[in-house]
Design goal:
Order of helices and strands: HHHHHHHHHHHHHHHHHHHHHHHHHHH
Family: Belongs to the mTERF family.
GO molecular function, one term: nucleic acid binding
Strand content: under 5%
Radius of gyration: 34 Å
Protein name: mTERF domain-containing protein, mitochondrial
Number of helices: 27
Keywords: Signal, Transit peptide
Oligomer: single chain
Organism: Pelagomonas calceolata
Structural class: mainly alpha
Bound molecules: 2-acetamido-2-deoxy-beta-D-glucopyranose
Shape: elongated
Largest sheet: none
């Protein structure tokens, strides 16, 4: 009966019952019993055993109906709730969340263990109030008295932890499985986690405080035996949940990785994708099988896995889909598939839809052999069509170049538009050199200094300052394009001594485009214009 009433009450509790405001600890009328004036008319106060739930709710601003609902369970003992609201600084919203996770909180009379746990954590980690609240909101069970002993008392695990950490005999499973905040702290310190980081872990993942010590010891012991170069603690720090990984599962996963797949750099794999540790044998073998099926040698499979451990995290169906897409839609040659996998394994994780869009775009701009294009620049399959490829293609079109130029140099698409392609184009234009005079390869493969010196025949410093001004204007475009910093940029005079403003190296087709004072030419407006298809 009581349970039903509580359940009904909890159901209404969800959000609207208690105001979601972050009100500070409520004042407790009980603290000043002499002053009868301030709580006049209050009738729910149970002077003997602290306030009733109804009273607490009333103080928290609950409505009459809600209080009436709560009165039905007024026989419950709400002392812990009272402590949380009045003394520990929890909000009514916190408490209602906690109650919905752990209804038993409304029935426990033992304030002492709850208070001790709160104060212990607060003092140990010097927690901010919001972090303290978060921990208990997520793990209200910590406030219940543990069945075996007080949560903050040393259960004797520490010597075992120390023995484990110092390479001594492995600690056997302990009898009791009580959660022990103190042990958690001790264990983590013993594997090298700094107090500051323990605190971060606890706030981020409060469940940590509820893990059985035996569990944590077992997994720590096993991971320690793998002799990684980095500490086990650093693994925990980044992935606290590893402490909860069942050691049998972890051991089997390691055996599959090392013995069956042949992984040598296990630590790389584990640190990059620790979830591999809790995967079953079939899940681990599946990606390896897929790779072998498309023609990778066992040795190469290992290299791919070591380079891209996230492979274990991909949906096998999706990976299969990518491979099928490469073969059937894109038309990669049979021999090219393993080469692409080896060189760019992360492409296996790129959504087929996205790759399909790229392929459609390449066809749209007139690339005839898209498969060949993609084997020459596989990452292109992961580029964003609208944000990346289209503007880059539009830029070429605006410079009177065409798809033939990109087909000769697919890597053009791999250069950043704003920091390389645009400023170089603008610089060339300021010298009156049209892009058409060069092969794209000549323009973009060299670094900035080489580009300035060998392609344009300018001092590297000159290009550097031009580029800086260009980027600044890109970041804060002025309303009138001609009034901007670039317009103010004055190219140094070319004297007969330094030669002409003509490239010393111009491998492109000779194209003596119009004479006149080319220096007047500025960055074209189109470089910031709408991104339209050519
Ligand atoms: C937590 O510690 C701070 C500073 O020591 C203290 O002011 C605060 O009252 C403590 N909170 C609880 C709930 O014990």
């Amino acid at each position: 009966m009581r349970r039903l009433a509580l359940a009904a009450w909890l159901a209404t509790l969800a959000a609207p019952l208690l105001p979601a405001t972050n009100r500070p600890a409520l004042r407790r009328p009980r603290a000043a019993p002499v002053d009868a004036g301030d709580t006049s008319g209050d009738e729910g106060i149970d002077d003997a055993g602290g306030a009733s739930l109804a009273e607490l709710l009333k103080r928290a601003g609950a409505t009459r109906t809600e209080i009436a609902a709560a009165k039905k369970i007024s026989t419950e003992n709400a002392e812990v709730i009272e402590y949380l609201l009045d003394d520990a600084g929890f909000t009514t919203q916190d408490v209602s969340e906690m109650l919905s996770l752990k209804p038993a909180l409304a029935k426990t009379a033992s304030v002492a263990p709850a208070r001790e746990t709160v104060e212990f954590l607060n003092a140990t980690f010097n927690l901010r109030k919001c972090d303290l609240r978060k921990i208990f909101r997520e793990q209200p069970g910590l406030l219940l008295p543990s069945p075996t002993n007080n949560v903050i008392r040393d259960t004797g695990a520490c010597p075992a932890v120390l023995a484990t950490a110092s390479g001594g005999p492995a600690a056997g499973p302990r009898q009791e499985t009580s959660t022990n905040v103190y042990d958690v702290v001790y264990l983590l310190s013993s594997v090298g986690v700094k107090p500051k980081n323990i605190k971060e872990m606890v706030v981020r993942w409060p469940q940590l405080l509820t893990l059985p010590v035996a569990q944590m010891l077992a997994v720590t012991d096993y991971l320690g035996s793998l002799q990684f170069e980095g500490t086990v603690g650093s693994l925990y720090r980044q992935h606290p949940w590893v402490l909860a990984a069942p050691v049998g599962t972890v051991r089997r996963a390691v055996e599959v990785l090392v013995d069956e797949i042949g992984v040598r750099r296990l630590e790389n794999v584990v640190r990059a994708y620790p979830r591999a540790l809790v995967k079953g044998r079939d899940d681990l073998l599946e990606p390896a099988r897929l790779l072998q099926d498309v023609g990778l040698e066992r040795e190469d499979v290992v290299l791919v896995i070591e380079a891209f451990p996230l492979l274990f995290g991909l949906e096998p169906l999706a990976t299969r889909g990518v491979l099928a897409f490469w073969r059937d839609e894109l038309g990669l040659k049979k021999n090219d598939v393993p080469r692409v996998c080896r060189a760019f394994p992360s492409l296996l994780g790129v959504d087929v839809q996205k790759q399909r869009k790229v392929v459609a775009f390449l066809r749209e701009i007139g690339v005839v052999n898209v498969a060949r294009f993609a084997t020459r620049l596989p990452p292109v399959l992961a580029y964003d069509v609208d944000a990346d490829l289209r503007p880059k293609m539009a830029h070429l079109a605006a410079s009177a170049l065409s798809v033939y130029d990109v087909v000769r140099f697919p890597a053009y698409f791999s250069y950043p538009l704003d920091t390389v392609i645009r400023p170089r184009t603008a610089f060339l234009e300021s010298y009156g050199l049209p892009l058409t005079r060069f092969e794209l390869k000549t323009l973009f493969t060299p670094g900035d200094a080489q580009f300035a010196k060998r392609v344009v025949g300018a001092a590297p410093a000159e290009y550097a300052s031009f580029k800086a001004a260009f980027m600044k204007e890109l970041a804060n475009p002025t309303p009138k394009p001609r009034g901007g910093l670039l317009a103010a940029f004055v190219k140094p005079e070319i004297t007969s001594a330094t030669g002409k403003a003509f490239p010393t190296l111009s491998p492109g087709a000779p194209d003596v485009a119009g004479g006149g004072d080319k220096r007047k030419r500025r960055r074209r407006r189109g470089s910031g214009g709408p991104r339209t298809a050519p």
